[in-house]
Amino acid sequence: EVKLVESWVGLVQPGGWLRLSCVASGSTFDDYAMSWARQAPGKGLEWVSAVSWNGGTTYYAESMKGRFTISRDNAKNTVYLRINSLQSEGTAVYYCLKAHDGGYYYPGGEYDYWGRGTQVTVSS
Question: Is the pLDDT of residue 1 over 90?
Answer without folding.
Answer: no
